[in-house]
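ok so i was messing around last nite and threw this chain in just to see what happens. nothing serious, just curious
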Amino acid sequence: MTGALQSGEVRATGQDTQHAPVRITISKENYLKAIAEAESEGETVIAATLTRWLNVSAPAVTMAIKRLKRDELIHVEPDGRIALTQGGRKIANRILFRHHLIERMLTEIFGMEWYKVHDEAEQLEHAVSADFERLLIEKLGSEGDCPHGNQFGLDSPEERRRRGWHPLDEADAGATVTVVSVFERDRQLLEYLDGLGLRPGVSVEIVSRNYDETLTLRLDDRLLQLGHPVARKVWITAA
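result:
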């Protein structure tokens, strides 16, 4: 096939140039992005991971995996582990970058509440054209954290620890720490943290680690109780 590919079409790595280009749908973009996101959270990606991550049925995931394998966008190991091919990662990174830019646009330009922007960006990321992406980069720059304190790209737990970050549930009693990042893919979590006043940039004192596996925190003049399931989704650094 000669000439430029149409929007929404790519050639997967290794395809014969005589073959028709792969049609990239919103569903495929969502699966590829979910694989990249789950990897960035340190998860081993298998079919069940995608069922949970995307909140879809196991049969739907099975069919999607078959399509993505056919299009040479993923590989599936004999033990069921799923990994992106070069072509699949390129698509995932494009969507992740647009998501990141949209989140920043919504907060920095439009002033939307930080706990709302992830869900909005999930809807808008598929509609961003290359021209609009260029304008966003010109306006916002290509560097900078999103409102949840997360960097663009596959920022794994190991990479965060190398920067000196740790989950809040590992903080020692008596320490004063600053929140630098929170898990952004859980709207209820974000609203809960916002209600407590815990967001990136806020400093808290760890008053105690309690027998019931909660933490007592001091934020300004208030004492807060935080359970470990929440605390482990908040990343901190020494204040």
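not much to say yet. The longest strand covers residues 176-182.
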